[in-house]
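Researcher: I'm comparing several assemblies side by side, and this is the next one on my list. It has 613 residues spread over two chains. Same procedure as the others: predict the full complex and return the structure.
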Amino acid sequence: MSCLHDHSCEDHNCSADWSLHTHIDLSKVSALNEAVAGSVKSVFKPWNRRLDTSEGFLESNDGDPELLVFIPFTSDVKIKSISVVGGSGGTSPSKMRAFINRDGIDFSDAQNMQPVQEWDLNENLQGLLEYQTRYSRFQGVGNLTLHFPDNFGGDTTQIYYIGLKGEATQLKRDVVATIVYEITPNPSDHKTRADAGSLAHVE
Amino acid sequence: MVLEATMICIDNSEWMRNGDYAPSRFQAQADAINLICGAKTQSNPENTVGVLTMAGNGVRVLVTPTSDLGKILSCIHGLVVGGEANLTAAIQVAQLALKHRQNKRQQQRIIVFAGSPIKYDNKTLEAIGRKLKKNSVALDVVNFGESDDGKPEKLEALITAVNNNDSSHIVHVPAGQNALSDVLISTPIVTGDGDEGSGFVAAASVAAAGGGGLSGFDFGVDPNVDPELALALRISMEEERARQEAAAKRAAEQAAEQEKVRELASGSRDDTMAEPVSNSTLMVDDKGHNLTSQDDEAALLEQALAMSMDVAKSGTAPVVDTDMSDATVDDQELAYALQMSVQDSARDMSSQSEMSKVLEDQSFVSSILNSLPGVDPNDPSLKDLLASLQGESEPQQKQKEDKPEEDHDD
């Protein structure tokens, strides 16, 4: 399920479409099996800089083409399509599997679990290919995990750019963290306006 | 203060009965584990530590990663030595235990105590290492106990395969005088990566090494334990530093003049006079943590201060000396120089001693003022007050005092 742009990119502002990267929580982006720790952050940038490798790129360890990228967002997003720019010489990833709203996936989890959606990728050196998602499954995404199990035969897998197209809602899917639970209820902690004026109270 | 979940793999195989580490290998291991658990939980309260045994009836997890130190220590308590250690299975089980940690934000670390001989080949170990690296698990290895051929190399190969950005370490501990835990205290296995130096480690290292290894705090005293002592040490250190800085500036000023006197005079007296000055500059460079040696140097420093002050004041005196030496014999010039300096010092000593006392007090006062929260030492009214305290001191000296004050500004 891939499509090429059917218009010339000078007329249409493609950059504006691929704007979900601004909603990514870059400090919490992480990757497993990356050769240089932290290099995964350089992969998320504006669309017009997608071929720019001056800040580095994501590369897997030698001899092991698997990569796992964890992308948390600052608010819930709806993802319409994904674009991946890989390296040349067989280092582009050949498959992509996506998981939604799951924390702390590692390789054994990723290999055993059923992904929300998976794609066969083509080599996309110019970044013009995009892969559409089953939109109904990608509503309310708090974090996205992308697993690239294989590449086109290279020693390592190189990824220069990951683009996300879609919309951001302003909602945040938050984990319940600050609730105080009572072991026994104490009515004086739960005064209602009706009680405030009454004479009786329980100590 | 990195947030970490650690799994410790204990070797409780038959080889641990040996007594070459006092009291027995197993007991030394248990002490080392106590130390590591304490250090980890102290460095970050959210750190968790778990323990598993590698030998016995098989690999068994004694306690899953928890931050409860008592639970960890109590489960080491009843362990029995026996069986053969299974390193590969132990590492895999440790990895699994870490994978199911409650707080997914913790970094994963495995610490292995490798006391028994290793029967695996390099290839297997490297494969394990790569798998750990792929899942970003760090590995620390303590190589002790049996040292058959190839064991250190195998473990080094394992660490090289796991190592990502120097987060994995290996320590070889030979049998001997030092206890296992004493050797481990100074290694990054206990102190952690970077400049963590937790208070626990600093205090423990002071106790163990007798004040030698000050990794955490300035004076080997934990401010949490003894705040008054730490404060008193800090104030006296600052006072000493201010004095040394003032002396260094004066010494540097008249160092050039002293040079002339020194190279022309062959007498030993001048050399000894010059030495306190050079000593003081040396001491300034070596702003050591040794407060006791300052007492010995203090007398010399006083002398140097007096010497340098009278040289600064009467700047023409050494120039006159050098002129004289051209014309006269060395001994005579030496005697004349001695006479002049003795006269000057006799004259100025009385006023100097008072002034030096005031100076000391003033630097002490300024350091006290700096440590007070609400006082701004750059306040002009405060500066006037301090200037009046100094009395008839030259504006030059006041400048020097201001500089140490500003240096103390935090």
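Model: For your comparison table: Chain A touches chain B through eleven residues (CB under 8 Å).
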